[in-house]
Amino acid sequence: MSDILLKTQDLCKSFKGQKAVNHVSLSIPENTVYGLLGPNGAGKSTLLKMLTGMLRPTSGRILFQGEDWTRRHLSQIGALIESPPLYENLTARENLKVRATLLGLPDSRMDEVLQVVGLSHTGKKRSGQFSMGMKQRLGIAIALLNHPKLLILDEPSNGLDPIGIQEQREMIRSLTKQGITVILSSHVLSEVEQVADHIGIMAGGVLAYQSVILPGESLESLFMQIVSEHQGEGR
Question: Which regions span the lipid bilayer (predicted)?
Answer without folding.
Answer: none
